[in-house]
Amino acid sequence: MAAERELPTHFSPAELEAPLYQSWIERNYFSADANSQKAPFCIVIPPPNVTGSLHIGHALDHTLQDTLTRRRRMQGYEALWLPGMDHAGIATQNVVEKQLTQQQPPKSRHDLGREEFVKKVWEWKAESGGAILGQMKRLGDSVDWSRERFTMDEGLSRAVLTIFKRLYEKELIYRAERIINWCPRCLTALSDIEVEHSDDAGEFVQVRYGDDQLNITVATTRPETMLGDGAVAVHPDDERYKHMIGKEVLLPLVNRMIPIIADELVEPEFGTGAVKVTAAHDPNDFEMGRRHNVPMIVIMNEHGIMEGTGTEFDGMDRFDARKAVVERLREMGRVVSEKRPYVHAVGHCSRCDTTVEPRLSMQWFVKVAPLAKAAGDAVRNGLVKIEPAELAPRYFEWVDNMHDWCISRQLWWGHRIPVWYGPNGEVLVVGPDEKAPTGAGWEQDPDVLDTWFSSALWPFSTLGWPDESGDLAKFYPTSVLVTGYDILFFWVARMMIFGLFAMDGTPPFHTIALHGLVRDKFGKKMSKSRGNTIDPLEFMDKYGADALRFSLARGANPGTDQALAEEWVAGSRNFATKLWNASRFALLNGATSARPLPEKSALTAIDNWILSRLHQTIKEADNYFEGFEFAKACDAIYHFAWDDFCDWYLELAKSSFAQGGAQAENAQAVIGHVLDNLLRILHPVMPFITEALWTRLTGGESLVIAAWPEADESRIDERTNAAMEEVKSLITEVRRFRNDQGVKSSAPIPGRFNGIDKSALAPYEKAIRSVLRITDPAENFTVSGSIVAGSINCEFDLSGTVDVAAERARLEKDLATAEKDRETARVKLDNADFMAKAPEKVVTTIKARLEETDRDIARITEQLKKLPG
RNA sequence: GGGUGGUUAGCUCAGCGGUAGAGCGCCUCGCUUACACCGAGGAUGUCGGGGGUUCGAAACCCUCACCGCCCA
Fold first, then answer.
1. For residues A391 and A383, what is the distance between their CA atoms, to the nearest angstrom?
2. At a CB cut-off of 8 Å and minimum separation 6, what does A682 contact?
């Protein structure tokens, strides 16, 4: 009997985890049923990129989502965690294009043609895409694989067409020629959020325009764009330049006359107070250009090569041209000053880091203002809750200031824009079930939509929208969106916008739970260049998925970053090992969850104490989980399991087992009950080891489908808790004494606990003696050492010399502490203002503290007097 | 430049009005039959500086300094 329940002496997570996950999949535990009567709980995964692999940020994000989902599943909800990926337009196209260039002979996508190229991308996806999905299994993600979605799937593509047409009909999508962010390497437009600004060392050059009659000095960080200047602008109130407004100056190098215009956008204090206006290559200049009819002169091609300026610079790369232009101006004596390096913010393509070029071009845009207003209001009106609430201002800041969203991309991989242009200038938007025009001269827009356009539909497109599917009815709106605050803007706002629009004002989720970033050991941001990245797979190999998950969850304070180090993960593995060994001990001693838990009156005080703490911990941890306080929930469980259960209860229970009989049987039931519940409440965070231990302990089918523990208030007993605190301090005092006296903890010594029989600690004496190895006094008992712990006077027969000096030092130290404590209390109580104004409860506490310290001081003084010498 | 978060033990962080906490690290003991991935004991902080509010401030207000993030 005992033999078959025995655990292997060693715990090896790596062997344990994969088969368990496999068994869960085989038993279909993660598949949600849209027809069930259970209340729905749904999380859609923030779709990872199809080219990506699991990084530590995913590991955190997924750990939290899995914890929430597993808990709800155990609570009896119809829990759906829906997995999938997005098609990552630029990134994926880049990957496949790179493959093509590495072929012999190297090819470009243009060699293949659009259709063939897209086919290649699908082939790539089938072969190498979605590596992250397998890694999610290793982490233990309890996602419903039968519902896995991809943004390029047919159903999701229908959703894209549907929303595009609806938005277009409401005039919330429009096409216009604007300055957009252009990546000269990816050869596509980018939205604002795909541009990353960094402080780069550039240059700041002042150039004199004009001639002897009239000249003006402009300042610029981009001298090469002067070839496309259409004007010089000054502030209308700038006395230095007022007389020049309306006149024309000579633009050097191109030898064109350009007007001097007045515009309030110009900051007189900045540079020389005069700026060049290159309306086709700068967003601010574009605005000014529109106001003042400045010609939009395009001087670069899509690759960022100078073109059409009619100067010697044509054909040069923009950065070479910058040098060359300044060089020529210098020769002409037109450079007034040069500052180099001049550090200023420069935009880079978030996919390839190429410096972004503002470019005038025809693109499709979403008119954001009315949609974003609704997205902001949903949170303002409490329809959607942001957790933690402190981060809501960041959300508002974003949605309230959102610019129109450029959604067209000059790519081939993605949802092609469903717009046909007719021979006579017709523009036709084709919905999902409509036929595209076929006549001569009709052509579809060549561009595709921004990946985020389809990701923004994720919370309902994955559930079957635009069809009125059962999934949609059951699971929309979803329960909670879990994501890092760093992408609050990237797509949370966009999902809100589209969700509210498509679903007639029903937001895509009730709650947005935000977590922070995982940083390195020293709190520094992880980056490839710093070389401080952590590979979650490596840590899972070494310490197990449970250990990684526990570390991440335990560090997850709402909305704040967390540091992670290998030592912390090792510590979590140690915790898992602790659980393993405790369970091993439990099983070896016949612990069982099969027997009903005896009534309080039948149990020892220590049994009742651990049950009290267990139910307290269940209550606490459950509340924390409910409030997305993962760190606090884990901490509560950790300390209960390790400190209360392993270090105190199991040690004390050894005396019950030694005793045998009913007391031992009760301990078996208590341990069984505690472990059963502990493993349940820990399961969402550490699914593997809890499952392995629980099935062995209880013989149950699986923790995945087991019931979530509920706190039994009747077992919580503050009096027992308090008494046990006294027991603990008594034991600690004696241990300190033994330690100070150099007595080995394994050596039994005879001792007396005077007065214990009449104290509240009487029921604990046996256990105390056992754990401390204090034997009953023998006939020739001679007191050679004594201490007072709490209300108990303890006397020991050390049958030999006592280290009086050590004892005196200890007592004097304790005395000093007690006296200091008494002084603080005394000062308060002597303060008339305190007595008059402090609440009754506080005064009582301080009074009690004073009495306690008085007693301590008296006792210690007495002890010191008794010391020989 | 505009927002916004932070500054608590050697490190990373909780605590956010009533005697300073955790994990890791550190020191001393210890192979006591679950566990050395362990046990027992211990040390460690004028809670960034300066003002203020309060009987009482790490916590609330003001101010300065220094980090960080987001957006320009």
1. 16
2. A579, A637, A641, A690
Q: Which two tokens stand for residue A727?
A: 């027991």
Interval A301-324: pLDDT, tens: 989 899 988 888 999 999 998 999
The complex's ipTM?
0.95
The phi-psi region of residue A533 (left if phi > 0; otherwise alpha if psi is between -120 and 50; otherwise beta) is beta
Beta-bridge partners for A751: A796
**CA A841 to each of CA A584, A719, A762, A837, A847: distance values in angstroms, whole numbers, following the listed order:** 46, 19, 30, 11, 10
CA A794 to C1' B58 (Å) is 39
Please report, rounded to whole angstroms, the spatial distance between the CA atom of protein residue A390 and the C1' atom of nucleotide B50.
29
Give distance CA A144 / C1' B38 (Å): 40
Please report the pLDDT score of residue A1 as a whole number.
34
Runs of H (alpha helix) within A419-486? 451-455, 458-461, 470-475
A837 touches strand B (CB under 7 A): yes
Please give the protein residue whose CA is closest to the C1' of the nucleotide B15: A632
Q: Is A387 left (phi over 0), alpha (psi -120 to 50) or beta?
A: beta
Helix (H) or strand (E) holding A70: helix A56-74
Residues in CB range of A538: below 8 A, 6 or more apart: none
Number of residues assigned to chain A:
869
Q: How far is the CA of A818 from the C1' of B38 (A)?
A: 33
pLDDT of residue A2: 36
Q: Do β-strands A419-421 and A427-429 pair in parallel, antiparallel, or remain unpaired?
A: antiparallel
Q: Which conformational region is residue A481 in: left (phi greater than 0), alpha (psi within -120 to 50 degrees), or beta?
A: beta
Nucleotide nearest to A576 (CA to C1'): B37
Which residues numbered 636-655 in chain A sit less than 7 A from strand B, measured from CB? 639, 642, 646-647, 650-651, 654
Confidence of residue A351 (pLDDT cuts 50, 70, 90): confident
* Distance, CA of A769 to C1' of B32, in Å: 13
Distance, in Å, from the CA atom of A434 to the CA atom of A455, rounded to the nearest integer, reads 23
φ/ψ of residue A500, rounded to 5: -65, -35
| Residue A394 beta carbon within 7 A of nucleic strand B | yes
Among all strands, which nt has the closest C1' to A841 (CA)?
B18
Residue A747 has pLDDT above 90, yes or no: no
Question: Residue A390 gets which letter from DSSP?
Answer: G
Q: Give the nucleotide nearest to A635 (CA→C1').
A: B22
Whether the Cβ atoms of residue A189 and residue A409 lie closer than 8 Å to each other: yes
Which has the closest alpha carbon to A122: A457, A414, A461, A432? A414
**A485: CB partners within 8 A, 6+ apart:** A391, A394, A514, A515, A516, A559
Count Cβ atoms below 10 Å from residue A208 Cβ, excluding itself: 18
Phi and psi at residue A839, to the nearest 5°: -65, 150
Residue-by-residue DSSP string for A119-169: HHHHHHHHHHTTHHHHHHHHHT----GGG-EETTSHHHHHHHHHHHHHHHH
Predicted local confidence at residue A163, as pLDDT: 95
Non-local (6+) Cβ contacts of A285 within 8 A are A275, A276, A277, A278, A279, A294
Q: Which residue has the higher pLDDT, A150 or A486?
A: A150
CB of A537 closer than 8 Å to CB of A134: no
Contacts of A38 by beta carbon, 8 Å cutoff, 6+ apart: A76, A77, A78
Cβ A521 to strand B below 7 Å: yes
Confidence bin at A685 (pLDDT 50/70/90): very high
B chain positions with any atom within 7 Å of a protein CB: 3-5, 11-15, 18-19, 22-25, 28-32, 34-35, 37-43, 54-56, 68-72
> Per CA to C1' distance, which residue is closest to B29?
A739
Interface residues 761-790 of A with strand B (CB < 7 Å): 773
